[in-house]
Structures are given as structure tokens and as C-alpha cells.
Amino acid sequence: MVKRSGKSDKKQQPLIVVAGEGDYDREVLRHLLPALLPVPHLKVVPIRGDKTDLSKADRQLSPRVEKLRRLAQAMAVKERAWLMGIVVHVDFDAVIDERYHSTRERISDELARAFSAQCESALALAVSSTEGWLMLFPEAFPEVNKGWRLPDNICHRDLGKIGDAKKHLKTILKQPAYSESDAPDLMRKAVAVMREHQRAGRKDGLDITSPKGKNQSYTDFVRDLGGWKTS
Q: Of 89, 132, 213, 220, whose CB is crowded by the most CB atoms within 10 A?
């Protein structure tokens, strides 16, 4: 979590820049972030064409984050917007363990160092991939394809303990076969279902901020966003 020292320009549209290796991962966050941060007139823009990988950067972490800082600044200028924050997606291709916590701390601290004087920052360190987050929202799957259903034993397990969530999902969803390109639509539908349940006043409805399933990496991400200053 980062505390931004600057003040917003009330005349400019608030902007979140999304970075990460995969196009589909960035698109998932583009749909998710407005639901987690319901800021009026919020614009979420992915950095396209950049494949900056922070997961195994080690000694190259600082220059790679500095590159993202320059790209985010340029995006804000291009969009004529107030840079409210940056979100960086990284897949963590393993289960949640001590390495997850150390990786998260290392990258988050570097993002804070680079961005804290300018804007907020957050790390979307998805265990064990974006699919490990998508499975938190089983209601979205039949909305994308009517034949898709997640078994109850999947929905109620600790999704942070699935070693390869993407492969796991592909073994479940076969008619039609799940593809990574389906991920943005699944998150878009999850947000739509949540808003529909909210309008209907359903107390047991889907809640993006606090899903019924468990994945510590998603909980960590939501917690960090909850500490952002958005005005």
C-alpha cells in the first residue's frame, strides 16, 4: 500500500494505469478496478505492447519499475488525466507460501519507492495465475458460456493452494474449451452479476470486494486498494 503525497487536480479525470506481461491479464484488471474503486469518472488504461516482467527481476527490478514509472507518466500526459495510481499484474506460478510473501513484499516496496511521491501503486500478484482469481466468481462462468459450471468442491477450496489454476480450469471447462482469451469476459460478467445482485438487494449476492471463495493473493490486492487515497 502506498500513500500519495500529491493532490488531485479536480479538473482532470482520474486515471489508473495497468501494467503487466499479458494482454488478457491487463484487460481483466481493466474490468475489475472500477468495481473495487468506484471513483466517479475513473478511467483505467492498460499499457499496451510492454512486456515488462517483474516476477524474476532481482537486480533488474529497479530499472524495470523505473521504466513503468516513465510509461505511466507518459500515459497520463497523453490522456490529459490525473495519474491516481498504477497497478502492476504479475503471475505467481506456485501456491501461496513464504516465497509468495517475500516476492510480494520485494516488488511492492520497489513500487512504493518509485511511485509514492507521485501516485498510489498496487501489486496484483495473482496466485497461481489470473485464473486463480476468476474462480472466486463461479456465477460469472455460465454467463459467458451456458455449459460452464464450477463444481462446488472447487468453489469452497483454498484457490491459493492450486498449483496451476489455468491448467485446472481447462480440465473442468471443456464444452467449449476454456481459453485465456475468455478471462476478460469472465471478469466483465462477474462485475455485471455483482451490480445486478446489488440492484436486486440480494444479501447473498456476488461481492467482488469479498468473494465467498478464498485466495489470499486476491485478498491482499483488495486490501491494498482499500488504502488508496482517491481524491
A: 132
| Nearest to 26, CA basis, from 4, 40, 45 | 45
Q: Quote the CA–CA distance of 111 and 66 in Å, as a whole number.
A: 9
Q: Cβ(111)–Cβ(121) under 8 Å?
A: yes
Residue 56 pLDDT greater than 70, yes or no: no
Q: How far is the C-alpha of 65 from the C-alpha of 62, rounded, in Å?
A: 5
Residue 174's Cβ-count burial label (10 Å; 0-12, 13-18, 19+) is exposed
- Inter-CA distances, 167 with 132, 143, 171, Å: 10, 21, 6
Taking the whole predicted model, whether its pTM rises above 0.85 is answered as yes
Q: Point out which residues pair with 92 in neighbouring strands.
A: 127
